[in-house]
Every structure is written in C-alpha cells, then in structure tokens.
Amino acid sequence: MNPSLQELLVVEEDAEILAFRCPDAGYLTWPLLRNQFLRALISSLYYRETPLIAPPAEGRHRRALAALPKTLWKNARQWSAMRSDILVMASGAGHFTKEGRSFNRITDYFAMERPESTLTIEGLMDWQVPVRPFNQRTCYYLPWQGAMELRGRLNRQNRHDVHARELVAFVHAKAVKLLGLELPETQLRLLESLVAGKLAKLPSMADTYRSLLDRVRPRLVLLEQGCYSDLGVFNHVARQAGVRVAEPQHGMITGGHDAYLYGKVLRESEEFQQYLPHDLLTYGPWWGEQAVLPVQKWDIGHPHYVEQTRLLDRSSEKTDILLLSDGFEFQKYLDLGRDLQDRIGSRYRVVVRPHPIERARVRATFGIEANGIAIDRQTDIYTSFATAFAVVGEVSTGLFEAIGIARHAVLWATPKARFSFPGHPLLECETVEHLADVVLSRQASDQGLDTSNIWTSDWRGNYARYLDNALRGTAPRRLDA
Predict the structure, then answer these.
(1) In 202-307, which ranges are E strands?
(2) Model pTM?
(3) Mean pLDDT value of segment 360-367
(4) Which of 211, 288, 306, 322 has the greatest number of beta carbons closer than 10 A?
C-alpha cells in the first residue's frame, strides 16, 4: 500500500533539517524545497504520466515582458495612494466575470468589505492583465517579480548550487532509507536547479518584501497560499516588521495537502513557526480540523459560495455530468468521460471542466470538445453547477461546493483521491461502472449531507470580527535597514 502524506513527512522529522541555511541571508532553506520535494514524491506514486514538478514553461519571459508595460502603468496610477491598513497578496488565479468586470473570487470579496483601507497586489494568471477589474485598488506584482528574477540570475554562484545539492541529497536519502522511494535523476537535478535559483534570489526577495511592507505600511496582510512553504520568507519578513499575516482559504485543505500538514519537528520549532502565517481563515470548522500546523484558525465562511449560490438559477434542467479535472491529467478525465458517456447513453451529457491552472493550455489544445466530449468554458464553476445532475472529481474543492446544487457530488475514489482525501463525507465510486449506476439510478434526496460544518454562515460578520481582533495593537515597524 502506498504511504499517506503523514507517512511521507518522515523525511522532515529530523532536527538536522533546520541546520540548512541560505549562505547569503541565513534563512532556513528547507522551506524553499519542501512543497516541491513532497510533490515529487507524491507524483512518483500517483501522477506517473504527468509529473507535478516540471521545468518552467517555455515562452514565459516573452509573455511576462509583453504584460510589463500595462502593469507598470496601472501601478503608477496607485503609487501615491498605496498606504493601507490591509494588504492583500493574491495569486490572480481566481478571476471570473462579474457584472461585466473581472472579479477575483478568492480575495476581492474581502477587499470590497473595507475598500478604503485595503490594497491588493496581484499576480498574473497566464500572464494576462485582468480587463476592467472590479477592485480598483489593485496593483500587479509583475514589476517586483521581474526585478527579483533578474537580480537572482545575476547573483547565482557555485555556492548556491552546492547548497542545493546537499539539501536535496539529505532529504532524498531519507526518502530512500525510510520509505523506499527513489526519485529519478532528472527529478533530482530539476529540484537542485529550482532550489539554487531560489537561493540566488533570496536576498533580493527579502529586500522586495521589506520595501513593499514599508511602502504600504499594513497592519494585516491577507496572503493567498500563505501556508505554502515557498512564501515562508514573506511570513518571516512580515513578522519582523510586526505585521500580522493570515491566509484566506482558497481551495481544499485536507490531510493529503502538503501545505497544511507539517511534521512534529517543524510544528514544535519556534524558529520554523516564523515562516508560517499567524492565522488561517477557513470556510468552516471541517477544513480547519484537517490542517495540522501551528497557526490560529478562524472560521470565516466561503464568500464566493454564498454569493454565487444566492444568484444561481435553480430552475435550469439538470442535464450534465460534470467531471472536474485536477489540473495535471486532463486526458485521463477525457477518457473517463468518453467511457461514461458510452455507458449512460444520451440521457445526460458528459462535460469535462479544466482546472484554472490548465485552462489556457486545454483551450489551445482541444478547443470546445474532444472525442465527442464537451469541454466546459465557463470561468465560474457555479454556472456549470446549475445544469449538473452529478459532479465528479478526484482532487477538488468543487465537489463540496456542488453539494446541494447538483443532485450528486461523487468522489472518483482512485488511489490519488484516497491520498488527497483520507477522510471526507462524500459518496465514493471506484469504477466507471459504479459511477454509471449512480448516475442512472440514485434518487435526488439520498446524499443528505449537513453542510453547516463545511460552510460557516455569516462570512461578513465573521470577517468584520476577525478584523477587529487582527487590527488591534501597535503599528508595524519600519524595515529600512
């Protein structure tokens, strides 16, 4: 039997891992490798056809340069008014069209609750600058990101490569000895290269974070993916400045997600805790119970779920079986869709929905259908839920969001799904035959899940109370030195 994530964490259950430090800046370096190394192990077990860790996409520098002038112009318009009590650092992955404008479903609900005192700095998804953003107090991270990358490339030295090889070798030896898992040489070299690049830009990364915090002077940062170890240096710099950091939940939190499950050595290390946010703002108690890490958990609710279900047209005919791709193995979902469609006939239409991180690639490769299976083009998943009789997936928060909207929310119970959801309240189907039987024969009322533990009510009130607590206290310190 393949190991669980909890069992994989044996690779970091050694205090010696905290001895690896950046040769330039002194920061712990395991956070720079942690997510990628664990995902390389997970990939070797569950994603053998499409590795989770791959070289950066070709053409990214050209596309980033093409977007740079527009981001510089938009940032210049905000430059004189950047001071804000609340700084939102967003990935940019959550955009959909709301009232004809671009709206970030992950962070804009919070930003619009206190628009006069909230500034958002956003990354670019697929290097596309949002058109007519709903949130007018938005800057874009690309200029700072580009400067960091350039300084890192110029700063890269042999000492960074040596340290990267030593760190990768240390944890890989643990994986081989304790788990019997050996990564191929190509993956090891890729991990070493990724870490060496991060080490080279680490001083400029820390300087950039300091300058941003000194410019904005926030008392609170809402940091999307703040528990991911790659953002550990941001958390460390913010803590030095006396700035509170919270991650707003953006997707699934389970016992199979490496960003929310940490080994005992790290959890009990006061130094490592400086690389984590102070708070985790969850959709509801169930999600917080899955997270095992030393942060304070606050049940806020799921703004996008609340607002979109309120607007949903529930009179639509339920004609679709919606398959939710995991972002990596889209062809597998197309194959499942073709097999399922053959078994259920014309009674329902099978539709495969790409994950946001693969949407542009899928659109360019397949268009609107493949082998007779429709590919969902809606930017907002709730529009797709409106016509879904059943929603099926392996690794998706969408399964939970579909409860009470679609007739059935079904976990495709593959080994990958069982790893990702070691505990869950969903209906399971292991085979396409079982899934076809569920689609054709189950009644509408037999799921009957209580969602109050999954989605906390009154997100506005909960967020307001959280802000009252988080913004209480002293002003942030300057970090000019």
Answers:
(1) 220-223, 244-248, 279-282, 296-299
(2) 0.93
(3) 90
(4) 322
